[in-house]
Design a protein that fits this description.
heterotetramer; A alpha/beta; B alpha+beta; C alpha/beta; D alpha+beta; B: alpha+beta; Beta Polymerase, domain 2; five-stranded mixed beta sheet; D: alpha+beta; Cytochrome-c3 Hydrogenase, chain B; 2 domains; three-stranded antiparallel beta sheet; 13 helices; quinone binding (chain C); NADH_UQ_OxRdtase_20Kd_su (chain C); quinone (chain C); metal ion binding (chain C)
Chain lengths: 598, 175, 213, 396
């Protein structure tokens, strides 16, 4: 049935004739919304070229390319993303996942070109009209994270539980925690270059994610034969460059390494690492010192089939790892786990053998095909301020060694430690424990030349020391140790303004006006250690070339100027464990090359 | 849902029923009983709506999984019937007589997975692809990236660097 | 499936006479396209101006980008005021907008439509997909580079480009035409074998003559 | 009203006899039949697909739907992408209405991975889905009018749709492809002033829709061409897998939002819009009322949506997100019917298989092929649009 209305009502359309037009007058210059995902911008000074954007891009639109003016250095690959607009879909996932928040999208959207090859550019490095646009898509906040920026917390003993004993403080990750922490890794591999041993960090973290800890152990042993040790006390330079750490906590690479080592039982190491049978070459190598570099060299040489003998001055193996680092950081059973595995590869160790006394270097040369020396730095340096020759002024390394050897250690009620490195923290905390045991209270004060922000000690060490009631008062230069007869009265200090000059050379500046006095019964110096080359005969020393700073000169293979002698460890590079391990590994390869050529 | 399954078990051998969520479950039926089971579900249990029919290629186990997802319009529940068929000479009984749109699904499966449904109308006619000469593209052993690069030559001039490798080359080439 | 529809056959006409039909010859023209010389001087300039101000777009939505055509056609962006309008048939159109990815099946139709368009004709390619495969770079069914199959005058970046960007693209196309550089049709004729070779390489089911306008 | 399937020529003596299968033997060489390719390059086709029509006079004798022009192999591509990498491509499955893909993908994955989406994100998702429905209906209504000769409606509604796209741009950063609902949550809270602008737009739409009703629906010509035309028999609903407004226009109140409620729909007040006559007119009217209901739903959502709160749940690192093995099916009600993702995970970083169930899959092939027979060639476009099909979701 037709209604009249059906014929008339369509004429309503006519009323729109007088409506105001909705046409956009100038569509070519219309600005897009604030959040619009337009063309890419990159702050290339912030960007570190980690390549996370490349790995998340489902269109394979991003390449990492070298860019003029950006150098490859620690923590920066020197590469920058280049976007191909023949691939991009402007999803912005690259922005969301960017570890440094350098990448963003502007709200510009017009790009017309005749040449299809032009649609590629390096944002930030090639000037584009939208580089300075404020508006555009940025990583949203409000709990929007594509990976967790927060580190999985590590179980630790409470300060009250730990300050009397030398029980290990850090508990280690559980499986769930380790997998969660490993999950945060973005697999950029920036850390590998910074690690002195260039460990396959992304690979072993991946092994944790895949719950394949045997594979993880194999990756570890590729470059590092002391994972239990490194997993506890490594200076973890890798974590300082971790790309996740730019906006969030860096990955806990060290604890993850420890997790792999902890979870693999020692008995199965040989099976996992496939080292049950080794092909002997029949050649012999002597190694002086059983510190990290010596053990590392012995391990890799043993794998290559050399018969290694380690000569150790002290009655136990491990060098500084055993005699310099307190047990609460590195328990002896874990240390022994790593060392015993290396010994199980056929490495022989001779304790209480001092070179130059029990056997000379020349004799070693006769008995062995090559010699590696990793004797380290065991002689404490002194500030040489007046009063340091007083008997109540001690060297930290000597005290630490005595603690391990079980010798009696002098503990006074009021102790001042000079030094801001990890050794200073170690002695502070060790003495604090002994004070607590002896006096029931802690009265430790540690002062350093460096101010709080540039103190070389690990941050957590400082925090933990304070938790254990030691006072850390950095930024003071020692002037004099006041003594009275056989007693020490205290330490006079002045304010230290800066430690280094413009050229990063050691040249402390002081403000003589600001003074302080730290009263003490005992002073411990811990400002670094020196090399002890007394085991070398004078004639031999003349053959060895030294560098201007008095260190033995070695080539890339860690070979000294005497071709059968190789050297590594703290006395060459460092000082820390991981450098020693790296040196030992390289020296082992150098020795192999030298002996194969011979 | 549970009562339906119990009912079913009286008539058919139902293996490994899995309740995914309150209103969705999956069961496995053998190739021989599947069509009978589905007909029963449609006619007696009220699963009148065929939501989808698709396949999953379990190449490691050398079989295809066919999933018939049925919906119950009154009870608002879904039941997925999974049928495992051999990858070799993959063939399944047709259900085009139960639902009109099944023939479209079966045509697609024939083309994209190479699963035959004898008797289904037009099942051999090309559906989506035209002039396709390779193995059916949805099979796992067909590598689309390789095929694309070979056939449609991407624009040259792209190169990328792995950050870790590049840093090694720049910073410590000899180690 | 057989291709009897392109084979020669005999049919009976309404009058009852048998007629021999060869579809590829009788229904299409298989002469190869020729490059056209442009007119000289001011006439060509005038012609180019006229061409640039009346861009008639073929209404063939080949991919995602087609969805942004409708805002362009309607009052908000109103492309008509710039001399751009949509035509339903290739015979009337001078601009082919390839709106994004092209599957092989569509490419076959696109080639035919393109060849049916009258000279001079221009191609505007939208989005990443036409430049280097876009987000379907690894798909087995979409082409990666449009310029392998037909000459392209203007590319517009975006996934998909906004109507405003499209207008900018048309603006650019106008400049190109006015400068006398819109020679896509001649380029196609001159490099006909190369284009045809590329097309045939991927269109496996080639059941049409090589050229069919 | 007489309920005829189609308006056809009553005098069947002019037509060839039917064979035993009830079909007509088509012999092209008899010169009585003509084959017409309706698409893919054709102004009367929705998107890039084609109908192969066999005509006798101007009546369609046979029809075959050809799809695959937009096939990109999503289901294959997703198998070689990590879960997060699937997120930007899923929205491309259905161009005019991408958000349902994002939602179904995200919710299937969240179900398998056992992730709870924060409250604010749930509301924002609901909002985006309804906005998407609104813009899709607005685009459709212009298409339906246009296919039956009323260009003016399209001029209005595409403008209205653009207003919604502007809001989308503000909220999500994208105009067509929003890439907003990623697994675990969404990518941004409401921007400042969004509510006011949205309210303004909704008022505009309300106002315009009154005119659309007058010009399009209360229109003699439109009624003449659509009433009693292209009837879907309610008995076909299940055999053909018909969902959405197509089913609701036949009197079957199928609506996933009510049947299997998801997101915040249980907290919203609405009733599925149902029609009776199941012809083109009823379907158009059901969609128009559905559109108005969507406007109302958006108003309800805007009143309840929080301004603050977390927008994304804590998830594993997306670069290596392993989803536990299992399979699930997640569905949502889009403008065309039931949209669903069937996801199978084998416990790795890559999905084992993802199957997309677009409602057009059943509507545009089996159903259309049946409905179009005996229709007049001039009605083919209108009939096809009235089923509201999007080719990209058929072939994916």
């Amino acid at each position: 049935m037709t209604k009249l209305n059906d014929i008339l009502s369509p004429f309503t359309a006519w009323k729109h004739v007088v409506r105001e037009p909705v046409t956009i007058k100038d569509p070519l210059n219309r600005e897009a919304a604030d959040r619009y995902r337009g063309f890419h911008k990159n702050d290339i000074s912030e960007c570190i070229g980690c390549g996370t954007c490349e790995s998340i891009c489902q269109n394979a639109a991003i390449d990492l390319v070298p860019v003029d003016g950006v150098e490859t250095k620690d923590g920066d690959s020197g590469l920058r993303p280049r976007v191909d607009y023949g691939r991009c879909c402007w999803c912005g996932l690259c922005v969301d996942v960017c570890t440094t928040n350098s990448l963003s999208l502007s709200n510009e959207y017009t790009w017309v070109d005749e040449d299809p090859d032009n649609f590629r550019f390096v944002p930030g490095a090639e000037n584009k009209s939208w580089d300075n646009r404020e508006k555009g898509y940025k990583k949203p906040g409000n709990g929007y994270e594509l990976y967790s920026p927060v580190r999985e917390s590590m179980e630790e003993l409470e300060p009250e539980q730990r300050d009397q004993s030398f029980i290990e403080i850090v508990q280690g990750y559980s499986k769930e925690q380790a997998e969660k922490e490993a999950d945060r890794c973005v697999e950029c591999g920036i850390c590998v270059a910074t690690c002195p041993a260039h460990m396959g960090i992304p690979e072993y973290i991946k092994a944790i994610r895949n719950d394949d800890l045997n594979e993880g152990l194999r990756v570890l042993y590729d470059t590092n034969p002391l994972p239990e040790i490194c997993g506890r006390i490594c200076t973890h330079k890798c974590e300082t460059v971790c790309s996740v750490g730019h906006h969030g906590d860096p990955l806990s690479i060290r604890w993850l390494k420890r997790y792999i080592a902890d979870q693999n039982p020692a008995e199965e190491y040989k099976k996992i690492l496939n080292t049950e049978t080794l092909q002997p070459t029949g050649k012999k190598v002597a190694i002086i010192g059983s510190g990290p570099s010596g053990l590392s060299a012995a391990h890799y040489l043993a794998l290559m089939g050399y018969q290694c003998t380690i000569y150790e001055k002290l009655p136990a193996a491990g060098g500084m790892m055993r005699f310099g680092i307190p047990e609460y950081r590195l328990p002896y059973d874990q240390l022994d786990k790593d060392i015993n595995y290396i010994l199980s590869l056929g490495v022989e160790i001779k304790y209480n053998m001092t070179i130059g006394k029990d056997i000379t270097l020349e004799e070693l040369n006769k008995q062995y095909d090559a010699v590696f020396s990793g004797t380290g730095l065991h002689m404490g340096r002194s500030t040489r301020v007046p009063g340091t020759d007083h008997p109540e002024v001690y060297q930290a390394v000597d005290l630490l060694r005595d603690i391990v050897l079980g010798n009696e250690v002098p503990v006074k009620e009021k102790i001042v430690v000079i030094g801001g490195g990890n050794v200073a923290m170690d002695i502070t905390r060790s003495l604090a424990r002994l004070q607590k045991q002896k006096f029931g209270k802690v009265d430790m004060l540690t002062t350093s030349l460096e101010s709080e922000d540039i103190m070389p000690a690990d941050r957590e060490e400082v925090i933990e020391a304070r938790e254990e009631n030691a006072v850390i008062d950095p930024g003071w230069g020692p002037v004099e140790i006041e003594t009275e007869g056989d007693k020490v009265k205290g330490l006079h200090v002045v304010k230290c303004l800066s430690v280094f000059d413009e050229n990063r050379r050691f040249a402390p500046k002081f403000d003589e006006e600001q003074k302080k006095f730290f009263p003490a019964d005992m002073v411990v110096e811990s400002i670094g250690q020196g090399m002890d080359l007394s085991y070398l005969s004078e004639e031999f020393k003349e053959q060895l070339k030294m560098d201007p700073r008095g260190r033995i000169l070695v080539n890339d293979d860690f070979q000294t100027s005497v071709d059968w002698l190789f050297a590594g460890g703290d006395m060459i590079q460092g000082p820390d464990v991981i450098h020693g391990i790296a040196n030992g590994h390289k020296a082992a390869m150098g020795i192999d090359k030298y002996l194969s050529d011979k | 849902m549970q009562t339906i399954i119990e009912n079913l078990q009286k008539h058919f051998q139902v293996v490994s029923y899995h309740q995914q969520r309150e209103n969705l479950g999956f069961l496995i039926a053998s190739k021989e009983v599947a069509v009978g089971l589905i007909t029963h579900l449609r006619d007696y249990e009220g699963f009148a709506h065929l939501v989808l029919l698709t396949a999953v290629d379990w190449i490691e186990d050398e079989h295809f999984q066919l999933t018939y997802l049925l919906h119950h319009p009154e009870k608002k529940v879904d039941l997925g019937v999974r049928v495992m068929i051999s990858r070799e000479n993959a063939e399944m009984y047709s259900i085009h007589h139960l639902w009109e749109q099944a023939r479209t699904y079966q045509r697609e499966l024939r083309e994209m997975f190479g699963i035959n449904f004898p008797g289904s109308p037009d099942v051999d006619k090309p559906f989506i692809l035209e002039g396709w000469e390779e193995i059916p593209p949805y099979r796992r052993d067909f590598d689309t990236k390789e095929y694309s690069e070979k056939t449609y030559f991407p624009r040259p001039g792209r190169e990328t660097h792995d950050p870790a490798e590049y840093m090694k080359k720049k910073l410590y080439p000899n180690e | 499936m057989g291709k009897e529809y392109i084979e020669k056959r005999t049919v009976i006409s309404p009058e009852g006479n048998p007629i021999e039909v060869d579809p590829l010859k009788d229904y299409f023209c298989d002469a190869a396209p020729k490059s056209c010389k442009s007119a000289s001087g001011i006439i060509e300039k005038f012609a180019n101006w006229a061409r640039s101000e009346s861009l008639w777009v073929l209404g063939f939505g080949t991919g995602c980008g087609a969805i942004e055509m409708r805002p362009l056609m309607t009052p908000r962006f109103d492309a008509y005021r710039f001399g751009i309008q949509w035509r339903p048939t290739p015979r009337q159109a001078s601009v082919f907008v390839i709106s994004g990815y092209l599957s092989v099946k569509t490419l076959k139709r696109v080639v035919r439509s393109y060849e049916q368009m009258q000279n001079p004709k221009f191609v505007v390619a939208l989005g990443s997909c036409t430049i280097n495969g876009g987000m379907y770079w690894d798909s087995y069914n979409t082409i990666n580079r449009l310029d392998h199959y037909m000459p392209v005058d203007v590319y517009i970046a975006g996934c998909m480009p906004r109507p405003e960007a499209l207008l900018a693209g048309f603006d650019k196309l106008k400049h190109i035409i006015r400068e006398g550089r819109g020679e896509g049709a001649n380029k196609y004729a001159e490099n006909f074998d190369w284009y045809k070779g590329n097309q045939k390489k991927i269109i496996k089911d080639w059941d049409m003559p090589d050229y069919n306008w | 009203m007489s309920k005829k399937l189609l308006k056809w020529n009553e005098d069947r003596t002019l037509f060839p006899e039917k064979n035993s299968e009830g079909k007509i033997d088509v012999d092209y060489d008899s010169h009585k039949f003509m084959k017409i390719w309706h698409g893919p390059q054709h102004p009367g086709i929705t998107g890039n697909m084609s109908l192969e029509l066999t005509l006798l006079g101007d009546e369609v004798m046979d029809c075959e739907t050809h799809v695959g022009y937009l096939h990109r192999g999503f289901e294959k591509l997703m198998e070689r992408r990590k879960y997060i990498q699937c997120f930007p491509i899923v929205c491309r499955v259905a161009v005019p209405e991408p958000d349902f893909n994002e939602y179904c993908f995200a919710s299937a994955m969240e179900e398998l991975a056992g992730i709870e989406v924060p409250e604010a994100a749930e509301w924002l998702r609901t909002l985006v889905l309804e906005m998407s429905r609104l813009q899709s209906f607005l685009a459709w209504i212009g298409g339906q009018a246009g296919s039956l000769g009323q260009g003016i409606i399209g001029q209005w509604t595409i403008y209205l749709r653009d207003l919604i796209l502007d809001r989308f741009e503000e909220l999500t950063g994208g105009r067509i492809y929003h890439m907003y609902m990623l697994p675990g949550g969404v990518r941004g809270l409401l921007p400042d002033g969004f509510r006011e602008r949205m309210t303004q737009n909704l008022d505009d739409i309300d106002k315009f829709m009154k005119d659309v009703k007058k010009v399009m629906f209360d229109n003699y010509v439109f009624k003449k061409r659509t009433v009693g035309m292209g009837v879907i028999d309610p008995a076909w609903i299940n055999p053909f897998g018909i969902t959405g407004p197509n089913a609701r226009a036949a009197g079957v109140a199928k609506d996933v939002r009510k049947d299997n409620p998801y997101l915040k729909y249980p907290e919203l007040d609405f009733e599925p819009v149902v029609g009776k006559d199941s012809d083109i007119y009823t379907r158009a009217d059901v969609r128009r009322r559905d559109l108005l209901m969507t406007v109302d739903l958006i108003r309800q959502i805007m009143a309840k949506i929080p301004d603050k709160g977390d927008i994304r749940a804590k998830t594993p690192n997306v670069l290596h997100w392993k989803v536990p093995a299992g399979e699930t099916y997640s569905r949502a009600e889009c403008t065309r019917g039931e949209y669903g993702y069937y996801m199978v995970s084998d416990g790795t970083e890559y999905p084992r298989r993802i199957n997309v169930r677009g409602p057009s899959y059943t509507h545009a092939v089996a159903l259309l092929e049946k409905m179009i027979v005996n229709a007049n060639i001039a009605d083919v476009a209108g009939l096809m649009v009235s089923l509201h099909t999007y080719p990209p979701e058929i072939e994916r």
